[in-house]
Design a protein that fits this description.
Helices cover 36% and strands 19% of the residues. By secondary structure, the protein is an alpha/beta fold. It binds acetamide and zinc ion. The site of acetamide (ACM) has 4 residues, from loops.
Amino acid sequence: MRTIFCFIVCKLAALYSFPQQVVSIIPQPQQVDIREGNFPLHKARLILPADPKAKSVARFFADAVKQQTAIVLSTVKVSSYSISFVYKKSIADPEGYEISIQPKNILVQANNDKGLFWAVQTLRQLLPLKKTTTVELPCLQIKDAPQYAWRSNMLDVSRHFFSVDFIKKHVDLLSLYKINKFHWHLTDDQGWRIAIKKYPKLTSVGGWRKEADGATHGGFYTQEQIKEIVKYAQQRNVTIIPEIEMPGHCMAAIVAYPELSCRKKQLETPSYFGVINDVYCAGQEKTYQFSQDVLNEVLALFPSKYIHIGGDEVPKFRWQQCPVCQQKIKEEGLKDEHELQSYFIKRIQKYLQSKGRILIGWDEILEGGADKNAVIEVWRGQDKAKEAIANGNSIIQTLYLDGPPALLTLQKSFQFDPSVAGAEKKMLGADCPLWTEWVTEYNADYMLYPRLQAFAERLWNVKTSYDDFQQRLQYHYSLLGKKGIQYGAEDKNL
Ligand code: ACM
Ligand code: ZN
């Protein structure tokens, strides 16, 4: 009797809490009103928009529905239930959208195809996580737009190489959580990962290293593979920001071409990590020519307006010893090696500007003075953020994901707040870098999830609570599990 009573109470409780349980969107939309009734997705006709971009978004939605459930949405059948994607120019935010689910129709509206696409990523999170031919979606009204325009994740593919398949799967998930930029850290001391036709040894030599145990580690992306990934990301509203490190963190390049360094010594691609003294020789014209040649090929592959050139952790030791660098300092009337670093970055910045692009650098590019048109990615704390803003630069804040979940807990990630008081106009948003000295394809998921979801929510909607986020996350553990993602352990409530 007691069991039956309990059974009935539990069933009633489950029914009562139905809408909350089925709506578990991350990041939480700005406004969600759940209404009475349901919309039978399996009976609906998808009305294809005339506009080609909107049409491809509608098709992406149909494909996602087919993959996630077992429903094939017809675009031709006669039905009194319809799904429409429509432009509504009065929606001001370029990424904003509205969804209205009523008993007979779903209406998705946005200013442009980007907003329509984010609406699709929201709709996908309303679907059940099992193959089924009947799906009832709850009636609701959503109005949504992001808090910050720059929401990115960086993956370091130099310290460990990540396959094309991994990158695509990664971009799929960034897109699902409305992370609109993928910052691809393509070069560093331990490996050069992007094929450059004019300098083939960058990848044939600099793409590989000998590990301490004698094994070889390496790999690189061909230009065809990069084009394919850029297109794949574009179709998912994700812009790829390539990062080509200079004038430091470039051992792989100077191993391939020793003439680019001050000492011209033949070195080996390092299998150890840290900050290495050997950097590009900033005194010789050859280095600038090389950097521009590389960037020319990079710009042809990546349409992004923003190009990251690193600029972090550049030891000045070799420059102090190098007659060519010292001569350059004299010729250009520079005070010291810090100003030589600034001279280097400013030359590259002008070059990128002449090609219609904007330079991003880590906060070290403030050393010796930075052009205010450069964007500063801040990784060394609020003082650097304030320094950049005082210098007139726009900034990107960071939440590093390379610490293990025990050090950066989920709750701490959820408390991430990129804002700097009074600097709203200069605040683009934030990046969550994953450095991979100790990370490979086999443990990357553990480092990324669920912290990346917390980051995504904080950049989209700052008004939600951690408790509520944790409740919604339960659906997403199942979602990640279905995709074979080995997400990390969640910390207990503190
Ligand atoms: C950095 O972590 N060196 C940007
Ligand atoms: Zn030099």
